[in-house]
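Can anyone check this?
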Amino acid sequence: MTKRHFVRLAEYIRDAGKYADCPFTDAQINHLADFCHEANPRFNRERWIGYIKGENGKNGGKPLPPKKSRPVEVQS
């Protein structure tokens, strides 16, 4: 697996926590992290879990602030 796969998986887990009735548990996330490390020994478990929890960005740095939404002009 590549970094792109790990990032997409983390985003899926994070989004599932927002919209699912039963978000992923820490045990499930750790189990998936074990799988990812077996698939790629360069996998960075702490950074990946931090990204899921919103503690850092996908590259390990601080997460980007949410984009400000622009007012929508309604034409009548």
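Reply from J.R.: I decoded it. The mean pLDDT is 86.
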